[in-house]
Amino acid sequence: MDDQANPNDRILARRGAERWVFLIEALRDFRTTGAVAPSSRRLAALLTDPVREQAGRPLNILEVGAGTGSVTRALIPLVASGSRLDVVEANPRFAAGLRHLVRTHPHPAAAHRVRVHEKLIERHRPDHRYDVIVSGLPFTNFAPEQVRAIMDRYLELLHPGGALTYFTYLATGPARRLLGSRSDVSRHWAVERVLTDFQRRHATGRWTVWGNVPPTAVWQLRTPLPSTAPRPLPARAGASR
User: Fold this and answer.
1) What band does 185 get if pLDDT is binned at 50, 70 and 90?
2) 128: three-class secondary structure by DSSP
3) What is the pTM assigned to this prediction?
4) What are residue 209's DSSP bridge partners?
5) Which of 114, 160, 109, 157 is nearest to 133 (CA)?
6) Strand, coil or helix: what is 10?
């Protein structure tokens, strides 16, 4: 692109390119991509709220299922001195794009505080816990036992009192009843029951983003604060996606 282009034009061009990349990957493998467009700015803002609320504090942050980096871009400026952002993305084409994003991002935090890991979250074995986890995984496309394994792993990876944010698409149940097979509908509702169980035990907030494509519900969960010191970080072997 012309170096003299208006900054707003460059932003619009970048967003247009992101949408094409996302659409191509959705057509290639919708089950693991889970949408046809990147997350909106409003959705990204809500997902990253727990980081923003602790602005200036050193935090360990984990983003899972980052896609083309819509939420990653919102997170990078929030990564304060002494903080670390791990981005876990299993899709190799998305992971390559995220590495490029980190290398070329103008914020000084990007090069030294952000790491992209091309792997499934079930295979991520950090030597530390996280204060905030932001998940972009399309849970309703997975098997219920996979969703439970991933959610359990998230809670294990969080510090006591840590926050997990994730989103689910609205009206996917009725759409699957109209268009999906009986087994697909059954799997979908089984996943909803798994998520509802975690929400009932740990949810601290829920918000609706109507302007996203498609509209979404954003959930925030927190791990309880124990009365004793936390146990050592477990090395868990979860189910693969």
Assistant:
1) confident
2) coil
3) 0.80
4) 216
5) 157
6) helix
